[in-house]
Amino acid sequence: MVNKLSKHICAALALAAVSTVVSLPTMLVAGDAVAQTKPSEKQTRKVPTLRSKVYEQLSRAQTAADEGNIAEAISILDEVEGKKDSMNSYERAMMYNFYGFIFYNDEQYEKALSSFGQVVEQQPIPRKFEMSTLFSLSQLHLMQGNFADTIKYLERWESLNEGDIPPKNKVLKAQAYYQNKQYQEAAGQIDMAVAEHEAKGMIPDEGWLILQRAVYYELKDPNKVRDILVKLVKLFDEPKYWIQLAGMYGELGEERKQLAIMETAYQQGYIESAADLFNLAQLYYYHRAPYKGALIMEQGIQQGTLEKNLRNWRFLGQSWQLAKENQKAIPALIEAAALSDDGELDAQLAQIYLNAEQWDDALTSADRALEKGELRNPGLAYLIKGMALYNKKQYAKALQQLAEAEKHPKSQGMAQQWSKFVESEKVSQERLNAELSS
Fold first, then answer.
1. CA 209 to CA 194: how far, in whole Å?
2. Which of 133, 135, 145 has the alpha carbon at shortest distance from 178?
3. Single pTM value for the model
4. Which fold has domain 340-438?
C-alpha cells in the first residue's frame, strides 16, 4: 500500500529547511571610523576615508536608535543625506548602512532592503564591507520572497570572493532556486554543499538534507529522495523520516521494504497517528499477514487512536476474516454493518454465521441485508437463507428462498443444485415420516 509523500508537505518542509538568520553587516564603531581595507592580492581597491565630522553625525544617529528614538535617528540621518553630494563613496555607504539597520530593527523591511541596496551601489567601498552587505541583502530578499534578487546578490558576492564558496552560501542559493522553481539549479547547489561538508568528515545540517530531499521530489527522482531519506533516518532518527522513507519505498514499488521500515518504526514507538497505523495495518493485510494488521487495528480502536467509524470497523472485520478468525471478525462486522447504509456487510455476516452453523443469526443477518438492499449479489442472501433453513429442517421454506436465489444470475447455478438436494431431502423426510406414522 503506497503512502505517498504529499507535495504540499514537501514544499512546507523545504521552506523551513534553512533557517534564514540574517547576518547584517557590522554596525559602525569608533575604531572603524578611519579603517581601510588591506589591498587584495587579486584586485586592489583604493577606498576613501570616513571623516570624523561624518562619523560624529552617524554616531549620534546610532545613539538615538539605541535609545529607541527611531524618529530622531532618522531625522539625523536625513540631515546627513542632505549633504551627500559633499560626501565620498565610503561615507555615503555608511550612511545608507545606518538607514538599513534602523529600518530593519524597526521591522520596516522594504526600506531596509532599499537602504542596504544603496550601500553596495556606492563605489569604491571596502571589499569586506561590500561582501557582508551583499550577503545580508541576499538573506533579506529570501525572507521577503524576492528569490531572483537573492540569487543576484549572491552572485555579486561570489564575484568578489577570492577563495572557495562556503557551503552556507550554496545552501542559501539552493533555497532561492528552489523557491523560484529552478529545481535543477537548486540541485546543483545543494549537492555541492552537502558533498563538500561530508568530504571534510562533517555531518550535513538536517535542514540541508530536508531541502535536498524536497528538490529531488520536485525533480521527480524518487530514488534520490529515498537515498536522502535513508541518510536522514541514519543521522537523525526522527519518526517522520521513517514514515516518509516507507512511503518512498511504496512509490518505488518496493513494498516489502516499505513494510519492513514501517514495522521497525512501529516497534520503536514511532507510529502514533491514525493514518500511519491504518497504513501499517493495510500493509500487513496485502502482504498476507492479516493477523498482525488486525491486532494493530483492534488496539488502535480500543485506545481511541483510530475512530470507531465504518471504514475502521469494516477493515478490522476483513482482516480477522482473512486471518481465518471468523469469531473475532463478527463483533467488528456487526459494528460496521450498523453504520452502513447498504446490506453488503450484513450479507458478509450472514455468510460467516452460516459457516459457523449459527443458523438463526445467519437468517437474521440475511434478512437485514435484503431489507437494506443495494447488494452486489442479492441472490446470495436468499441462498444463505435457503441453506440455513435446510439445516433447520424447514425444507419447504428453504425451497422458497432457493427459488428466489435462482432468479439472480450470480447465484442461479448453486441455487438450482441446492434446490435439487433439498427437494430430495424433503421427499426422503416425508417418506420416513410416513413410514413412522404407519
1. 8
2. 145
3. 0.78
4. 1.25.40
